[in-house]
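Subject line: Sequence and fold of a protein, written as structure tokens
Body of memo: The sequence and its backbone structure tokens, given next.
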Amino acid sequence: MPAAPPDFDSTDFRAALGRFATGVTLVTAVGADGQPVGLTVSSFNSVSLTPPLVLWSLTLTSSSFRTLETCQHYAINVLAADQLELAKRFATRKGPDRFTDVAWRPGAHGVPLIDGCTAWFECFNRSQYREGDHCIFVGEVEHCGHTPAMPLVFHAGDFDLTPQPARADDAA
């Protein structure tokens, strides 16, 4: 039996999803031309400890989709609270310009590891699942690390370092 049609519109759905605070990551890889690629992603989660698996998703219309779909390895860089400008840059700029003046070092397979992040995961591109208008990527973590830096948080459609109590006019 199929699911019932939704009783809400996409605006309501997006607003409800926004109530779940998430960390902010930069997913990075190297394209076939040897140039670094990367984009801001907030749909990141752990899957398994044994083997070590993580997941994230990307819209099928992303300009980086083909590179990330076909690459062997990528990195998930968890941004620190003081990296808000990087999150904005990688969410809006296109191509190699995103990396201009960004400090990074190559990981074990050459993928960019962004300096100053609170955590990073170097992943083998294990599997992908197309669902709706997105692709869910499952990465097998080969290397990871972390620092004590506080993470950057995304909540209710904006970056949010100090969540505040809901206002009366926010109630549904």
